[in-house]
Amino acid sequence: MIKFQNVTFGYNAENILFENLNFEIQKNNFCAILGRSGSGKSTILYLISGIEQLNDKFKKWNFGDISSHDDKALDNKKNFIESERRNISMVFQTPSLFPHKTVLQNISFVMKKKNKQVIIDILQKIQMEKYIDSYPNQLSIGQQQRIAFARAILSDSSIILLDEPFSGLDFESKFLLYNLLLEIKLKKEKTIILVTHDFDEAAFFSNQFLIVNEKQICHYNSIQEIYDFPRSRYIASLFQFTNILIGIFEQESNHLQTIFGEINLANKIHHEIGDGFNINYAVRPNDLYFLNERCDFSCEILIKEIKFFGFYHIVICLSEKYSQIIFIQTNDIENLSINQKIFIAPSCVKKIKIIV
Length: 356
What we know:
Elements: E1 2-12, E2 15-25, E3 30-35, H1 41-49, E4 63-67, E5 73-75, E6 88-91, H2 103-108, H3 116-125, H4 141-154, E7 159-163, H5 171-187, E8 191-195, H6 199-205, E9 208-213, E10 216-220, H7 223-228, H8 233-236, E11 243-250, E12 255-258, E13 261-264, E14 277-283, E15 288-291, E16 299-308, E17 313-319, E18 324-330, E19 341-346, E20 353-355
Parallel strand pairs: 3-8, 3-9, 6-7, 7-8
Antiparallel strand pairs: 1-2, 1-4, 4-5, 9-10, 11-12, 11-14, 12-13, 14-20, 15-19, 16-17, 16-19, 17-18
Helix pairs in contact: 4-5
């Protein structure tokens, strides 16, 4: 387990990245960390690995406790364990190999029980076995990253940290590493933490999600939970083509005026907002459907484009009355055409997600 308790960190007193972070990553779990650029995703990995020290006497604005499996303290006011003693491997966005060592030497360096056949086996999986005696400067960046992955996986470390490791890789390298990482995940022998900007990538591998937003962590245990209960505009937008629209809140009646009409909010909004306040709400493109005539909770739109995505189509529409672009996912476009005016409605009012 990796545990953060009341962790506040910034590189200077005026630039605090996050405040009072609290989360746990269970042993042998696969966790993804997502967030905007500069939100502190990579810094969380640096704190876990010991590259960054939290409780530094020269940086009084940083504080908190970080512990590992069995509540072993990694970084607190009394104790700091150096990186090399943390039993953690890390793969960076840019490959980090020993330039004076061969591929074989780079990998075997992190293995207590050095077994050449085991190294050959993993090199075959990533199509690098013929480069076993090559040096890093004889390899492409993608090939170097394959070796960095193999080294991390064969290390004796129980925790692997991945800092946007697939960014900029060619398709073949990414495909081979995806398969290798999936194999390691299914064996459940290591705790893996992946920092990524790619939500699809995170969704494919992970069963735990930490989303850094506004200096805080939003913790989710499934993709379904993120989909159904987005806690911010940013989180709602992680799913492709999500419609994030603006409604007007009426405090006294607890109603929200939307492009589909007035809806009653099931729960009171516990924020100090008054009448006429704009509130974001989200509607997923597959939760909207087409109508031939107006009905309750419908909205007239103009079809502008129809895009093919293999298993479905995305229809790009314009609500002229509200000047808002709307995406609709459908498998049936037989009766749809460009510049056609048509009505749409949510399949259920409950599908409208309020984001405050």
